[in-house]
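Run folding on both entries below.
>entry_1
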Amino acid sequence: MRLVGAKSAATWVSRQAVRRGLLGSSRLWFGVFVARGAVKLARRAIGPRQPTVLLEEWIEPGTGIEVRNLSRDSG
């Protein structure tokens, strides 16, 4: 389970690390850039995560199902 906004925060940190560390001259941000790359490589080496089962139900013969995707705004 992730914190809300965790993906956008990681994206911001990655962009800052590239901008200030790789393209700039900040040693701290370059260290962040290297660490972020190491984490990505480690995750790739470990392999893909197993999908999470959200719902599992038995369907009787003759029963139909409907799958819908609701936007966050439509509550």
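>entry_2
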Amino acid sequence: MKKILLLATLLFFFAIAKAQRVFSVQYESQAKVKVYVVKYESQADLKVYKVKYESQVGENDGKWFFTNYESQAKKTIFYVNYESQAELKIFFVDYESQAGWRNTSKKHLMY
């Protein structure tokens, strides 16, 4: 019984550990990561694809699920108005296969 409980707990934490569940906050001070949406793919650190279901999130590979509540998210983001204010520059792509990192040195921001 203890082994089953331990296994269930480990699986639960593994599922929660996916960093791609995000919530967009209203105030910069609430955010873990400040994000700027660029106009061109070539300017982005990360190409993001919005998935429809939480089960589709990847493991820090640009597939984001936007949660309805801050408590459900692994990362909170704030959209800044200027590129110079951002920690991470993103570009939203139309297809899941396009998602991914262009600048892997910023990958730690979404862990």
